[in-house]
Structures are given as C-alpha cells and as structure tokens.
Amino acid sequence: MKRFLLAVCIIASAPVRADHPPVPTSPQTYYVYADVVDVDPIIKHRIVRTPREVCEPTRYAHHHHDHDAPIDRDFEPGPGPSIIGGLIGGLIGHQFSHGKKALTIAAAIAGASIAKATARQNRNERYSRRHQRTECRTITDKELVKSTVGYRVTYDYHGRRFVKEMDSYPDEQIRVRVQVSPEF
Fold first, then answer.
1. How deeply is 13 buried, as exposed, middle or buried, from its count of CB atoms within 10 A (0-12, 13-18, 19+)?
2. Looking at the DSSP assignment, which residues form a beta bridge with residue 138?
3. Cα 61 from Cα 71, distance rounded (Å)
4. Which residue has the higher pLDDT, 147 or 132?
5. Distance between CA 8 and CA 115 in Å, rounded?
6. Rounded Cα–Cα distance for residues 42 and 170 (Å)
7. To bridge 90 with a disulfide, which of 15, 108, 113, 162 should be the other Cys (CB 3.0-4.6 Å)?
8. Per-residue pLDDT for 88 more than 90?
9. Position 90 confidence tier, pLDDT thresholds 50, 70, 90
10. CA 84, 88, 90, 96: dihedral to nearest 10 degrees?
11. How far apart (Å, rounded) are the C-alpha atoms in residues 118 and 111?
C-alpha cells in the first residue's frame, strides 16, 4: 500500500500546465502535459514518374507518281534540252575561242551535257518533293520527391525523456496519459 501511495504522489507532482489540469478517466489513469524538447521530421523519399509527349519535325522525301512520268534513275530527257544546251555552249565557245573549232566543239558538248543533267534533275525534283512531318514519342521524366510523413517527438516527463512518432507537428507541450498500477 505504501508503494501505491508513493507512486500516486510522484505522479501528482509532475509538471502540468495551469490551463490544462489533469483529467482523470479512472482512479488509476489521468492525463498531464509534458514539455517537447526535440522534433525531427520523418522524411520519405519516392520517385515520381511523369510521362510527357515530345514531338520533333522530321524531313522525308515523298515521290509523287503519275502515269506519264514514272520516277526512274535512268530517265533520259528527250533531245530538246541537249540540242539547246549544245547550241548555247557552241555559241559561247565560239565567242571565247575566237573561231577555233576544237574549243567550240568542246563548249557545245559541255553545254549539251549540262542541259541534259539539269533537265533530269528538274524532272525528278518536280515529282520528288521534300516534306516535313512531326514525329511524336512518349518519354518519362523521373523526379525524386521528399515528403514529410510524420514527426519523431522527444518529450520530457518527470525528468525522463521519451520518444513518440506523431502525424502532425506538436505544440510546445504534448498531452500524455499516466496510468498508475500497484506492483505486487
């Protein structure tokens, strides 16, 4: 019986807030307020994945075919461009060679060849066009996110330190339950 009375006296002398007197719930259990001495956040790390679409322009060749002008690497334009190119080349060659036949003939051949290649290139460009389209793909961004999931609270009760995990940040004092039971 003496031990029981001693325990009750010790607990009764515990520091309490004046505006929060102990609230008895039974003859052996009541509540008091203890001073908070330290609060540490409990941090949880997690990776958040966020998908996003990235679109980029891409160039490609589009061949337009019609029945009259099939695309062919061996395409030979008619004799018209070669004849016109040869005449122009011959005239230019004659002017700059001062009538020398060998240079005039060489300029005529060069003019015919250039005209033929230009006609082939122009035809292929007319039926083969460069287009641009947008190609899209999904990529996933990853971000490390820290979040506070609770608090590790150290409090002082009657000269002893105790630790409790709590969901919310505590005030300067926390309510603690005191339960007295005799030891036999």
1. exposed
2. 53
3. 13
4. 147
5. 116
6. 13
7. 108
8. no
9. low
10. -170
11. 11
User: What mean pLDDT, rounded, does the chain reach?
Assistant: 76
Say how far apart CA 91 and CA 43 lie, in whole Å. Answer: 88
| Inside any domain, residue 125 | yes
Contacts of 118 (CB under 8 A, 6+ apart): 81, 85
Lookup result for tokens 């060069």: 110
User: Domain for residue 94, yes or no?
Assistant: yes
What's the rounded Cα separation, in Å, for the pair 50 and 54? 13
Mean pLDDT value of segment 34-44: 95
User: What range does the domain containing 134 cover?
Assistant: 61-140
Determine contact, residues 129/6, Cβ cutoff 8 Å.
Answer: no
To the question of pTM greater than 0.70 for the whole model, the response is no
Taking a C-beta distance cutoff of 8 angstroms, is the pair 151, 44 a contact? Answer: no
The pLDDT value recorded for residue 95 is 73
User: Helix (H, G, I), strand (E, B), or coil: what is residue 45?
Assistant: strand
- For the cut 80, the answer to whether the pLDDT of residue 92 exceeds it is no
Backbone φ and ψ for 70, nearest 5 degrees, come out as: -70, 145
pLDDT at 36 over 50: yes
Q: Does 83 score more than 80 pLDDT?
A: no
Q: How many domains does the chain have?
A: 1
User: Residue 22 class from Cβ within 10 Å (0-12 exposed, 13-18 middle, 19+ buried)?
Assistant: middle
Is there a domain that residue 30 lies in? no
